RNA sequence: GCGCCCGUAGCUCAGUUGGAUAGAGCGGGAGACUUCUAAUCUCUAGGUCGGGGGUUCGAAUCCCUCCGGGCGUGCCA
C-alpha cells in the first residue's frame, strides 16, 4: 500500500486572516502557559493549540476546543478550564475580539471586532492578485500530466487530467512554488508501429489498393483522415514503396499531425506545457555519443545495488521498497520494458534539479505507482515523487450514458466536447469533483445557461460586480469599454466608512455584508489547503460559496446609494469580491467575464 | 486470493485529516422583479453517513470485521 502524502504546506505570509489565526493561537498558548505556571492548570505537556472556524456563524468567527482536549490530562472539567482561559483571553485580546464566550461542552468562541473583520476589504484591494499567495518557497515542482500516446485524438479523460494538472500547477504557483508543466510523449512503443500500420492500410485503401487492416489496428475515422491528408499532399507514390519504408514515413507524418492536434486542443483550453518530453530521446544514444539514457538509468540502479538477473531478464528489486513483486527492466529478448524507460525519465527529471515531481496518471495505471515510487527512492529521491490517480469520466447527455466503443473507434473526443460546451464549462465541471472520484459529466447541464449551471452562477457574480462598477463611474451598465479594475481601484473607503459594513447584524443587509466579508477572508486558507492536498475542487466549492455570499449581498444591499460613506464601503466590498472571484476562477483556469 | 479507490438526502456530491444540531446544488412544495443583470434571492420538506463492533470527553472522519460497487494484480504500453 502507499500512503497519500501531503508535504508541508508553503507558509502564507501576506494574509491578515492567517495572522489573526496566529495571533489567536499565540494568545491561547500564552494563557495556557500562564495557567500552568500559576499552578491553576496541571499539565505536563502543552497540547497543540489550534483555532478553527466554526460551521455555525452564531458561534463566532473562531473557536477552540483546547479545554476539551486538556480536560483529561489536567483532571478538571472542560468548562472550568474554558472559563479560566476565556477570562485571560478577554484581556489579552482586547481590541481584536469583542466577545469571548464558553459554549457547549467547553468550546471557547471568539467574535472578532468589526474593524478586524472589515479589514479584509483593503487587504484584498491593496494586494490584488497577490491576495492569498504564499511566500516563495524556493521549491521547484514539476507537474506531468496528460502524457497520452500520440496515436489518436485526446479523449475526454485526457481533458480531465489536463484541467486537473494545469489547475494544480496554478494553485501551487500561487501558493509559492516554482512550477513546470510537462507532457511525456510515449512515442517509442509498439503502439506507434500499429498506428503507422493502420494509417498505411487506410492509405492503400484510399489509393485503390487491396490492404489487410491490422488485427489490433486503430479503427477510428481519424486514421482515415490522416491517410487522406498524406495522399492529398504526397500522392499515391507510397503504395509502391516497401511496407517498412511506407510505415516508417507515415509514422512520422501521423505523429506530427497528432502532436499538432494535442497542442491545438490543449492551447484552446488554456493549457500550455513548458516541456514536451519525447520517450524516444531516452532510447537514443547519449549526446556525447555515450550510452542511451535508458541504459544509464539502469546503470544507476545497478550501482545502488538493486538489480539482479533471473531467467535471462534483468530485474529491479522493488520489493525492497514495499512493492508486491520485483519488476523487469530488460526482458530476456534484450528489449527494455516501458518501466525501464520510465526509470530513465524520472532520473532525468531529478537531474534537472526538481525538488518534487507530481505525476498524474489515469486510474488504470494505479498498479504501477508503487514500482515507480520505489525506483525514484532507489535513485536517491525517496518521497520526492507523488502520483495522483485521476479517475475516469462518464459522459451523459440528458441523463443517458454516451456509449463509446474502443473496438470500432467510435467516440466523443475531447475536442468535440470542447466545441460543444466551451472551455470554461468543461474545465469547471472536470474540477468540481475530488480527483479520486469518477466523474459523471452531463453535456446538457454543462451547456445550460441557467442557475442549474454552477459555472455561470460564479461567473455571473463577477459580471454583476463589473456592472455595478460601471454604474458607479456614471457609465452605462453595459458599457464594456469601462476599465472596471481602474474604477475599483479609484474607489477609496476609509476605516470609518468600512466600519459601516455589517454594522446592523441581524438584518438581511448586515448579515449579507458580514457573510461576504467572512467568505473573502477564508480565501488564503482555501488556497493553502487546495495546494497541500492538490485539490482544485476545494476552489470550485469556495467559488460557489463566495458567489452565493455575493448574490445575497447584491440582493439585500444597494451598492450605489446616495450616502457617500456607505456607498464607498459597499463599492470597496464589491471590488474586493471581484478580485477574489477572478483569482479563484483564475486558479481553475476559468475566465471571469465582465458581462454576460 | 491479494492490493488500491469508493459507499453521506430522491439525484450529483462537499464535509477544512477527531469537534457543537452532518451541509450545498439539482429535483419537490411556497414566495420575491418599478431598483446596480431574476443567469438572482427568501422560506420549506427530505438522513440509521452501507451494516456491526471498537478506540474517547466527542466518530461521517481513526482501528477491526462483514456487505456492495469500480480498478489493478504482464518479461504489455
Structure commentary:
With 596 residues, the chain is of the alpha/beta class. Among the domains are: 16-112, Gyrase A, domain 2 (2-Layer Sandwich); 190-268, no CATH class; 454-588, Isoleucyl-tRNA Synthetase, Domain 1 (Orthogonal Bundle). The chain has 21 helices and 15 strands. The protein has helices spanning 16-37, 66-74, 78-92, 114-127, 156-175, 190-206, 221-234, 243-268, 280-283, 293-303, 338-351, 369-378, 414-421, 423-431, 443-447, 454-472, 484-490, 495-498, 508-532, 537-556, 564-588; strands at residues 51-52, 62-64, 97-103, 107-112, 140-144, 178-185, 275-278, 307-310, 313-316, 327-330, 356-362, 385-390, 393-397, 400-401, 439-442. α2 crosses α3 (78-92) and α16 (454-472) runs antiparallel to α21 (564-588). It binds one RNA strand of 77 nucleotides through α2, β9, β10, α11 and α16.
Which secondary structure elements does this structure contain, and how are they paired or packed?
Layout: H1 16-37, E1 51-52, E2 62-64, H2 66-74, H3 78-92, E3 97-103, E4 107-112, H4 114-127, E5 140-144, H5 156-175, E6 178-185, H6 190-206, H7 221-234, H8 243-268, E7 275-278, H9 280-283, H10 293-303, E8 307-310, E9 313-316, E10 327-330, H11 338-351, E11 356-362, H12 369-378, E12 385-390, E13 393-397, E14 400-401, H13 414-421, H14 423-431, E15 439-442, H15 443-447, H16 454-472, H17 484-490, H18 495-498, H19 508-532, H20 537-556, H21 564-588
Parallel strand pairs: 5-6, 5-11, 6-7, 11-12, 13-15
Antiparallel strand pairs: 1-2, 2-4, 3-4, 8-9, 9-10, 13-14
This protein binds one RNA strand of 77 nucleotides through helix 2, strand 9, strand 10, helix 11 and helix 16.
